[in-house]
Amino acid sequence: MQPFYFSWICYKNNEADDFEKAVDLNPKFPLAYIQKLYTDYRRAAQKIDQELVKNVINFIKQAKEKFPKCVEIYALFAQVLSDQSKFEQADELYQEI
């Protein structure tokens, strides 16, 4: 399953808190980390809270630096950028994969 769809399903089913629990249990597990951040982004976007969206994007940038070999971080970050109509930046991320 694509990382975007997994996050979306968990977000829609109100299971996003499970990602936070997973990150608490193992903060060095990049998949849980980015899935949590992506669901945080979806929540912020749904609330139309641009300040929170910016904060989450900054955390995603940090995650990319922290876990540079995790492809899912690049893919979900590119999805976030696409949602923000930042298509060139999203394309650049896909090129890095």
Report on the architecture of this protein.
- 79% of the residues lie in helices and 0% in strands.
- It is built from six helices and no strands.
- It has helices spanning 3-12, 17-25, 30-47, 50-66, 71-83, 87-96.
- The longest helix has 18 residues, at 30-47.
- The radius of gyration is 12 Å and the shape is flat.
- Mean pLDDT is 84; it is low at 1-11.
Head-to-tail CA distance between termini: 18 Å
Which structural class best describes the helix and strand composition? mainly alpha
Mean pLDDT, all residues: 84
Q: Helix share of residues?
A: over 70%
Largest sheet: none
Q: Cα-atom Rg, whole angstroms?
A: 12 Å
Tally of separate helices: 6
How would the global form be characterised?
flat
Estimated share of beta-strand residues:
under 5%
Report the count of strand segments. 0
Unreliable sequence segments: 1-11
Q: What is the H/E string?
A: HHHHHH
Brief overview, please?
With 97 residues, the chain is mainly alpha-helical. The chain has 6 helices and no strands.
How do the strands and helices of this protein lay out in sequence?
Elements: H1 3-12, H2 17-25, H3 30-47, H4 50-66, H5 71-83, H6 87-96
Helix pairs in contact: 1-3, 2-3, 3-4, 3-5, 4-5, 5-6
Keywords:
mainly alpha, 97 residues, disordered N terminus, 6 helices
